[in-house]
Amino acid sequence: MLRNDEKALRKVIITAAITGQGAVPTMSDYLPITPKQIADDAVKAAEAGASIVHIHARKDVTGEPTPNLAIFRDIVTSIKKRSNVVINITTGGAGSPDDRMKVIPEFKPELATLNCGSLSVTPFHAYDKIKDKIKFEWEHAHLKTETTIFENTYKMMREYSQACKENNTRPELEIWDTGHINAVKSMLDRGYIQAPVHLQFVMGALSGMPATLNTLVYIYDRAREVLGTFSWSVAAMGKDQIALGAATLAMGGNVRVGLEDSLYAGYGRMAQSSAEQVERIVNIAREMSILPATPDETRQMLALKGLDKVNY
Question: Residue 258 maps to which CATH number?
């Protein structure tokens, strides 16, 4: 129950990105790697103050990333049974471009990612540190690759945005680098998406924009110049997750944390859950007289269709 003096305070949307597909089980004993662990971690993050949980799927036992719709369904239905949190399903996970898009018509989620440009991706810089400790065979090929492209062509943007429109799913536009703002403008000009858009600045990927304060200020200003009005959030990877989150709060934005983006809860200390990271950013927000938005407040802020209109 909020006190009277809390009712007028600013509300912030906190997203917890639960597991992603970049990190591997060898990197952390706390990384959720089974459908049950992913769902459990999501529910705990919601209880800690996250109003959105961002979901990738992994195979049971080994934790290998997968586009399997049955596994996705197990995860999202388990979360929905226990929480009214907004579930943001990835279209940027494992599988072919067609595989990645199937989650939208299958589940008709309230919110889904739409990535606005391609990147060269590789976690090979982490491989030498853990190659002698690998838990599952699939991790070797996953970490050693130097040829993977995270493909997000303009054709894919058109098709993914059309799928979102047909299923009344709000696209969260993932901005990995500064030029991706131009892709958003292109989609707006062609009527693929409608203003005002919801952006997420993803910072700190190896071949994306760096997670620095100067870059954050630049990309925000550039987006304002090109796009006008929008809602926005920041996901900073690695050690800069909380520091950039605090800067984002000061600038008026929303924040994403979670084990997908960082395995730590403070320098040198492994996070035991995404909820632990949510608690840290909630505490920082409260010190700034900012309160975490509830799931229903988030639905109103982002004009989402409601949990009763999803297909899971």
Answer: 3.20.20.70
